[in-house]
């Protein structure tokens, strides 16, 4: 919560400082008595309303409430012009910021622009010069953007913080999918192979005791490997060898009375590629073993440039058919190959079925390091949405304050050369500040900015408004502990001392000092908050990793309870049968009968656990939807009562497709998800780019057919600005 608290502290301090400045200026203009009291009352009211708009989720308010607070703020902002003169417009920038914070869609920018326009009219009405009118409008627009920036960054940090539970849930869901895939690919293979070889040994007894003993040796090897695979599934991946897996596959296929050819390209493979291809081969061979019609199988690899290709060919034409229960064998293979940066294909030619996996020898492309020195434009634009927004706002506000600094110098009426030199110094200040906010030049920033801050005094001869603001802000960012605040205060003291030495009036000295300190606070807040949002992202990732670790521990316990005992029992009984051979074939056959019972139970347990992990959950899908939409900048509101178990999976599918539609349409800024009384409703405001609902062949049509098959229905409505999808489920 540190980013949120800091943002609110900065906005509170800045609001108070600007309010105090406005009160000081009208006092200096001679405002006294009831006009001063009335003006102070308006200032306090505007201060309070702005705090509310900056620290509350005003976008979720009802429209009448938002209109009432904005209207009240407009009244207390412009009404004092009637008796306080042009100084009354000091807080108009806060009203502009409120328009951006409290209004949605394109109209927010129209209302934002209307505030400086109204300020221009008010200043013109009071008889101000054109230059002062332009300055007042610009200052209003810049202040509004600053208020919006700091307040929005606080909101973004709060959103990311609030979404961390959902994001951790997504990480856990991904871990569960990994577990389901590994259960299917690793344990499913070994347990199926154990059952096959145990059955073969059982049939060979008592007539062929020696051959049965050889099969039992393989059973022992496989059972120990299966126990290791339990640990692999629960704890992640371990290196595997394609060559070793090919030898094991050859043994298994021969035991199943198939003709086998294995042709592996010579040469070592990178560990990651070797492991991926070994797992892919294991699953491909498992698919072959599940089809008794297969009589021949070819396993081969070949190197082609920087890719290696694995082909598994067999003569069982129905191998491409669906697995019982909607298994995901081939889908798992494709997912693994794609994760390694490769592609997989299947083909059917008469009775011949071919699975091909092509994987780059170098593995998938390495992720780009998050190092500011190596950033490119594409890398920056590829960062998370909220981080891009934070940094864009920071850059725009810093540039705006740099222009404001040049305008303040212009008010000193310098010579042309002095103005150019001052503008160059201001450019240095802004450039260094932007670099610091993006992670550059943190060590060299203070001396460079100190020179650019005080050097213009040589040719201007007097301090100007906010001259030390960037230096003060950088001190808060780069110095540790109490040193930062000491240096920050020292900059303010130096500006005050320069003003006194120049002979300025007390009010002007106070203004220069306060303006410098306020600018420093804004610069610090607007620059540092974007970095803190990135830190929240990192904390979110750490939390997700912790959630995955806890999930792995839970999986390890569950697998140990379900499969560990069975596999250990199979190992013990197989060892006993192995020792009884060749002398006691009947007793060994009795032990093998027990092994077969345990093996069949283990196969059922693997399928049960894998299907349980693969089952889609509406609750998990809702958590994923919240996190995904929030990360895409969509404001999400979700309300869901208990979902009946019998429709849990299909509602999860409907929600996933509805959220996918929202994400495909960048115009969406809000989304509401509700489930109650057998109806799931997904509403969003991104209709401008949505597909036409009547368009045939869309995913929505597929969903409608699925719902109709269980007696439900799917409806969608679009208006001038919204799209609503409603799925009704029979109760």
TrEMBL record:
InterPro entries: HATPase_C_sf (IPR036890), Sensor_HK_TwoCompSys (IPR050482), Sig_transdc_His_kin_sub3_dim/P (IPR011712). GO terms for cellular component: membrane. GO terms for molecular function: phosphorelay sensor kinase activity; protein dimerization activity. Residues 175-241, 551-615 form the Signal transduction histidine kinase subgroup 3 dimerisation and phosphoacceptor domain. Keywords: Kinase, Membrane, Transferase, Transmembrane, Transmembrane helix, Two-component regulatory system. The chain crosses the membrane at residues 6-27, 34-52, 72-97, 109-129, 135-158, 389-410, 416-441, 453-476, 482-501, 508-526. Gene3D superfamilies: 1.20.5.1930, Histidine kinase-like ATPase, C-terminal domain (3.30.565.10). This is Signal transduction histidine kinase subgroup 3 dimerisation and phosphoacceptor domain-containing protein.
């Amino acid at each position: 919560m540190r980013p949120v608290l800091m943002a609110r502290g900065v906005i509170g301090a800045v609001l108070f400082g600007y309010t105090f400045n406005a009160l000081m200026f009208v006092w200096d203009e001679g405002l006294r008595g009831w006009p001063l009291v009335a003006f102070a009352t308006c200032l306090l009211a505007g201060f309070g309303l702005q705090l509310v708009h900056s620290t509350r989720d005003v976008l979720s308010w009802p429209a009448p409430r938002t209109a009432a607070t904005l209207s009240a703020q407009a009244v207390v902002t412009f009404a004092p012009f009637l008796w306080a003169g042009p100084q009354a417009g000091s807080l108009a920038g806060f009203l502009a910021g409120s328009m951006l914070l409290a209004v949605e869609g394109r109209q927010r920018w129209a209302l934002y622009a209307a505030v400086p326009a109204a300020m221009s009219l008010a200043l013109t009405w009071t008889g101000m010069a054109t230059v002062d009118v332009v300055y007042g409008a610009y200052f209003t627009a810049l202040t509004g953007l600053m208020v919006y920036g700091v307040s929005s960054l606080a909101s973004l940090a709060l959103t990311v913080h609030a979404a961390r539970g959902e994001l951790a849930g997504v990480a856990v869901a991904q871990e569960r999918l990994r577990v389901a895939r590994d259960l299917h690919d690793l344990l499913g293979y070994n347990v199926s192979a154990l059952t096959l070889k145990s059955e073969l040994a059982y049939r060979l007894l008592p007539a062929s005791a020696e051959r049965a003993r050889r099969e039992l040796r393989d059973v022992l090897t496989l059972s120990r490997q299966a126990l290791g695979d339990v640990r692999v599934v629960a704890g992640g991946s371990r290196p595997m060898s394609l060559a070793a897996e090919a030898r094991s596959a050859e043994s298994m296929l021969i035991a199943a009375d198939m003709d086998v050819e294995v042709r592996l390209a010579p040469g070592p493979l990178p560990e990651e590629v070797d492991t991926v291809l070994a797992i892919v081969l294991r699953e491909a061979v498992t698919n072959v073993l599940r089809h008794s019609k297969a009589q021949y199988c070819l396993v081969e690899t070949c190197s082609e440039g920087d890719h290696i290709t694995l082909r598994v060919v067999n003569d069982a034409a129905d191998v491409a058919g669906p697995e019982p229960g909607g298994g995901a064998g081939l889908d798992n293979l494709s997912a693994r190959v794609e994760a390694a940066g490769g592609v997989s294909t299947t083909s059917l030619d008469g009775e011949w079925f071919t699975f091909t996996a092509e994987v780059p020898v170098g593995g998938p492309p390495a992720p780009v390091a998050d190092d500011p020195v190596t950033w490119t434009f594409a890398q920056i634009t590829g960062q998370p949405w909220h981080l891009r927004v934070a940094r864009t706002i920071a850059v725009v506000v810093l540039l705006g304050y740099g222009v404001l600094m040049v305008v303040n110098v212009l008010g000193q009426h310098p010579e042309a050369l002095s103005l150019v030199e001052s503008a160059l110094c201001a450019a240095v200040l802004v450039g260094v500040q932007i670099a610091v906010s993006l992670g550059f030049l943190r060590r060299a920033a203070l001396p460079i900015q100190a020179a650019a801050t005080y050097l213009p005094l040589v040719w201007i001869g007097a301090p100007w408004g906010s001259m030390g603001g960037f230096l003060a802000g950088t001190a808060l960012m780069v110095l540790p502990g109490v040193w930062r605040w000491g240096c920050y205060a020292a900059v303010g003291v130096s500006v005050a001392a320069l003003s006194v030495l120049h002979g300025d009036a007390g009010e002007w000295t106070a203004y220069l000092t306060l303006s410098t300190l306020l600018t420093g606070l804004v610069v610090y807040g607007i620059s540092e908050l974007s970095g803190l949002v990135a830190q929240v992202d990192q904390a979110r990732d750490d939390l997700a990793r912790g959630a995955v670790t806890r999930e792995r521990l839970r999986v390890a316990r569950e697998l140990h309870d379900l499969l560990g005992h069975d596999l250990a029992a199979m190992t013990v009984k197989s060892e006993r049968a192995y020792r009884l051979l060749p002398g006691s074939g009947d007793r060994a056959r009795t032990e093998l009968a027990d092994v077969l019972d345990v093996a069949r139970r283990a196969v059922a347990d693997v399928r049960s656990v894998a299907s349980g992990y693969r089952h889609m959950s509406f609750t998990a899908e809702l958590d994923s939807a919240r996190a995904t939409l929030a990360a895409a900048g969509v404001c999400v509101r979700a309300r869901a009562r208990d979902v009946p178990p019998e429709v849990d999976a299909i509602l999860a599918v409907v929600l996933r497709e509805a959220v996918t539609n929202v994400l495909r349409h960048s115009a969406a800024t809000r989304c509401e998800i509700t489930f109650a009384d057998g109806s799931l409703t997904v509403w969003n405001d991104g209709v401008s780019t949505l597909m036409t609902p009547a368009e045939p062949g869309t995913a929505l049509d597929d969903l409608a057919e699925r719902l109709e098959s269980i007696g439900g229905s799917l409806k969608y409505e679009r208006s001038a600005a919204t799209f609503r999808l409603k799925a009704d489920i029979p109760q």
